Amino acid sequence: MDWLSFYGLMAVSSMVAFYALENRHHLFTLAFAGGCILASIYGFLAGAWPFGVVEALWAVIAAIRWRRRAAG
């Protein structure tokens, strides 16, 4: 496994883990947004730009959800 594949595995794994923990605390929603950003970077580095774009959008959506949850 090369470094880029390992990075992608870790990014997507963190995303899945933080998504599963989102209901426990609002900071897990923020961590999920961070995982989405890491996965987006992976998508662009791997040459899969549609994946990178979708993950970037997920990061924005998760950040908005975190902001609403943290405020309420």
For the biggest sheet, the summary is: none
How confident is the prediction overall: mean pLDDT? 96
- pLDDT under 50 segments (min length 5)? none
> What is the chain-wise order of helices and strands?
HHH
Terminal CA distance reads: 43 Å
Separate helix tally:
3
Radius of gyration equals 12 Å
| Portion in strands | under 5%
Indicate the overall shape: flat
Number of strands: 0
Relative helix content? over 70%
| Helix-strand category | mainly alpha
Polypeptide structure, described:
This protein has about 70 residues and is mostly helical. It is built from three helices and no strands. The protein has helices spanning about 5-20, 25-45, 50-70. The mean pLDDT is about 95.
Provide keyphrases for this structure.
72 residues, mainly alpha, 3 helices, flat
What is the topological layout?
Blueprint: H1 3-21, H2 26-45, H3 49-71
Quick description:
The protein is mostly helical. The protein has helices at 3-21, 26-45, 49-71.
